[in-house]
Design goal:
The protein is α/β, with parallel strands linked by helices and 181 residues long. It contains five helices and seven strands; from the N terminus they run βααβαβββαβαβ.
């Protein structure tokens, strides 16, 4: 079965100009991220692992490919480079860093009920001067990914959490809608 992302929503905190400026420092834009997500196709054979796990892995690969083409930008998916702190072993799914820099963009792809933890990890990374921007990718509507998984984080709820919490760390929330081709 082949799948694609047919819709992408963005929410930025604290405001669009701050997030836009950080993305530009990493040589990308909202439009480029949206284009890459909507052009991406992936297959799932339903035999090896669950759909959410496969989708998460595919999205990690997509963001690595997006940033690996950038001059002086290095994507990481393992090692100390994805840690939010030198004191606590909290790790991102992907960290994008400029060459020879500890600061970066930390990406969390969340289809499990850990959205609160991810926002706290962004804040820890920001307070430790590791994270310049947190990107949280969630479903717009869980029914398009797994209708029976009632605790899956969804875009509108995550947006309200960020609005109420008002974290110091700039955050780009991305809501995706997936469909079978």
């Amino acid at each position: 079965m082949i799948f694609k992302i047919n819709d992408v929503k963005f929410y930025v905190h604290p405001n669009e100009n701050i997030v836009k400026k950080i993305l530009e420092a990493y040589q990308t834009t909202f439009m480029e991220i949206e284009k890459e997500l909507k052009q991406y196709r992936f297959s799932w054979n339903n035999k090896n692992q669950g759909f959410q796990i496969e989708l998460s892995e595919q999205l990690k690969n997509l963001f690595v490919k997006l940033f690996i083409r950038k001059n002086g930008i290095v994507p990481y998916t393992e090692g100390n480079e994805i840690k939010y702190s030198s004191k606590i072993d909290l790790r991102a799914d992907v960290a994008i860093k400029r060459y020879q820099s500890n600061k970066g963009v930390y990406i969390e792809i969340e289809f499990r009920p850990n959205e609160f933890k991810d926002i706290v990890k962004f804040e820890i990374g920001y307070n430790n001067q590791f994270a310049e921007l947190g990107i949280l990718i969630v479903a717009q509507n869980r029914k398009h990914i797994n209708p029976s998984y009632t605790t899956m984080p969804q875009y509108n709820r995550c947006k309200k959490i960020i609005e109420e919490l008002k974290p110091n760390c700039p955050i780009l929330l991305i809501g995706i809608e997936v469909e079978r081709i």
